[in-house]
TrEMBL record:
Name of the protein this chain belongs to: ADF-H domain-containing protein
Gene Ontology BP, a term: actin filament depolymerization
UniProt KW keywords: Actin-binding
Free-text function comment from the UniProt entry: Actin-depolymerizing protein. Severs actin filaments (F-actin) and binds to actin monomers.
GO MF annotations, alphabetized: actin binding
Chain segments annotated as transmembrane: none
Domain ADF-H intervals: 1-132
Pfam families in the record: Cofilin_ADF (PF00241)
Similarity section: Belongs to the actin-binding proteins ADF family.
SMART domains recorded: ADF (SM00102)
Annotated Gene Ontology cellular component terms: actin cytoskeleton
Originating organism: Eragrostis curvula
Length: 132
């Protein structure tokens, strides 16, 4: 599975320049390549991110999560989300599962990984718990 250069460049912008709040990626089955699906601007919220996940299609995503620690320190962690809803096609789920590690290796700087099959598995409470 190839990864488009745009994926790597957008991820670098998210990581170093904080140009985006999140990026969703999809596999283009015709070209057998991971491509950028959507980018979320810095002002967008976690709800905007979760709503951008299609209810019956798989996606990969990265989310730049800002939070405050118990010691009152402002921190940020980059989450990698593997979205594979139960209603998506079996072939699609297999393709995303088998390509995930290879794709993740292309994105240097991911700190937390999350797998979700429905919105409750990537709720804000779960994200906060994984970040701390």
């Amino acid at each position: 599975m190839a990864v488009s250069d745009e994926c790597k460049l957008k991820f670098q912008d998210l990581k170093s320049k904080r140009s985006f709040r999140f990026i969703t990626f999809k596999i283009d089955e015709k070209t057998q390549q991971v491509v950028v699906d959507r980018v979320g601007q810095p002002g967008e919220t976690y709800d905007d991110f979760t709503e951008s996940m299609p209810p019956s299609e798989c996606r990969y995503a990265v989310y730049d999560f800002d939070f405050v620690t118990d010691e009152n320190c402002q921190k940020s962690k980059i989450f990698f989300v593997s979205w594979s809803p139960d209603t998506s096609r079996v072939r699609s789920k297999m393709l995303y599962a088998s390509s995930k590690d290879r794709f993740k290796r292309e994105l240097d700087g991911i700190q937390v990984e999350l797998q979700a099959t429905d919105p409750s598995e990537m709720s804000m409470d779960i994200v906060k718990a994984r970040a701390l």
